[in-house]
Design a protein that fits this description.
62% of the residues lie in helices and 7% in strands. The chain contains 22 helices and 4 strands. Strands 1-2-3-4 form a 4-stranded mixed beta sheet.
């Protein structure tokens, strides 16, 4: 939806309305709806709609505009057949700003009718039951969504502030609480705070969102992430992810989160299938394409993983997760110089702890023991390195120091049970770097302490 307000500062509002319409359409299970990140890359493009549709793998495109004037919002939308570039339908809608959620649902229902989508009674009810929201709270929510997509410490701080403002302005706004939970989790991971520091706040926000709106997919996805990352509640994690996917079959982030859970459970084929589905729903998201690579990497399919990481970096050369992960794939393939070049790039984008961890592993794999140990000392002096136990464990394992590696992993597990920041994430023990020590009695005992399953490892490819 194009911004017709005449104010460039309102671009985030038009983008947010676009994302909201996507979310409403995605509640209809018979539709495949491409997610926000991929769609936004075509804003202002000169490419034809048939060309865009081919790249996204869709049959139809919706385009239109949004205009906000005082307390009114007006949306125009048109449905276009992708193969013929023929306009199939168009309409306009005008509502009070406090009825913006109902406005979005009305547009989604009209589009579903035009494309003859099969809409179940439950889906129809969810689209029909849109609530009112205070306009200022909704604007703060959209601004939070705008900032959180960037995943750097500054933008995550601004996202957190925006979601907090949304919930303060309208405490009954479930989407605001779900967004706040997600912001706490993302900030925990990507702002160097140490996983677990914001666990209680993330959990409380997710539960409040579900209390206010039990059928909100974003809230169940946030609760699933809390149960997985912080609570290590494996049955609860799976139930929450499956609920989120049931409520919104096109919620790409839910498939990615579920893929991480499935990896930790040793269900590698299912993990790859879900990560692939997420990438199909948002094919121009570097985060989701890179996460697909991560599922392949942990299934020991290193060349396939490398291809996905490279694709993610084509989309965004500074995508931090892929920059850190591609070095690990190169290590497993024995391509150490290539791995070192990506460690240098990590340093340049401000991820010094990740760069040190990568170099430590690379030097260890190359037999440069003193340099690997020097990287461990460097990390010990760095107050921003959140996952020290994991970092030490990976480097020691690469050096062949089983006792030291397992001791670090044990510390990470115990830190989790003490609810300390920097606690280990549950998919860490599945990393290929630990394959040589996986049969060690202490490693097995560590898995049992974490209630993680033992399973046959996939064959390296």
């Amino acid at each position: 939806l194009a911004n017709l307000s005449g104010d460039p500062a309102q671009e985030f509002f038009a983008d947010g309305m676009t994302e909201a319409l996507i979310a409403d359409l995605a509640k209809i299970s018979s539709l495949k709806v491409i997610s926000r990140t991929s769609v936004m890359r075509y804003r202002g493009t000169t490419r034809s709609l048939p060309e865009i549709a081919r790249e996204l793998g869709v049959d139809a495109v919706i385009e239109g505009s949004v205009q906000r004037s005082q307390d009114r919002i007006r949306i125009t939308a048109q449905l276009i057949d992708a193969s013929s570039d023929r306009h199939l339908w168009a309409d306009s809608y005008d509502r009070s700003a406090q009825d913006v959620l109902a406005l979005q649902s009305e547009v989604a229902r009209a589009i579903a009718t035009q494309v003859r989508a099969r809409v179940s009674p439950e889906e129809a009810a969810r689209l029909q039951n849109a609530r009112t929201v205070k306009p200022d709270a909704y604007e703060a929510y959209l601004l939070g969504r705008h900032h959180i997509a960037r995943r750097n410490p500054e933008s995550l701080e601004r996202a957190l502030e925006s979601f907090q403002k949304a919930t303060e302005l309208d405490p009954t706004f479930a989407l605001g609480w779900a967004g706040l939970s997600g912001a706490y989790i993302e900030r925990d991971v990507w702002a160097g705070l140490g996983v677990g520091r914001l666990a209680d706040a993330a959990r409380a926000a997710a539960l409040e969102a579900i209390r206010l709106e039990p059928d909100l997919a974003d809230a169940h996805r946030a609760l699933a992430a809390v149960r997985f990352q912080y609570d290590w509640d494996w049955p609860g994690t799976e139930a929450s992810y499956l609920k989120a996917i049931e409520l919104n079959p096109s919620l790409a982030d839910a498939y990615t989160g579920y893929a991480y859970y499935l990896t930790a459970m040793g269900r590698f084929d299912e993990s790859i299938a879900n990560a692939r589905r997420a990438a199909e729903l948002d094919p121009l998201s570097p985060v989701l394409v890179g996460s697909y690579g991560r599922a392949l990497y942990r299934a020991r399919r290193y060349e396939d993983a490398l291809a996905r990481y490279k694709r993610a970096l084509e989309i965004d050369p500074e995508d931090r997760p892929s920059l850190s992960r591609i070095a690990e794939a190169y290590i497993e393939l024995g391509k150490y110089q290539e791995a070192l070049s990506f460690a240098d790039r990590l340093e340049k984008v401000g991820l010094a702890p990740a760069a040190a961890r990568a170099r430590g592993r690379i030097y260890a794999a190359m037999g440069r023991t003193s340099e690997a140990l020097a990287e461990i000392e460097r990390i010990k002096r760095d107050n921003t390195a959140g996952d020290r136990a994991v970092t030490y464990a990976a480097i020691y394992a690469q050096l062949g120091c089983a006792d030291e590696a397992i001791a670090a992993l044990e510390q990470g597990v115990e830190a989790h049970f003490r609810r300390e920041p920097g606690a280990m994430q549950p998919f860490v023990p599945m990393d290929p770097v630990f394959d040589p020590i996986r049969g060690h009695p202490r490693f097995v005992a560590m898995l049992e302490r974490a209630k993680l399953p033992r399973y046959p490892l996939p064959v390296r490819q």
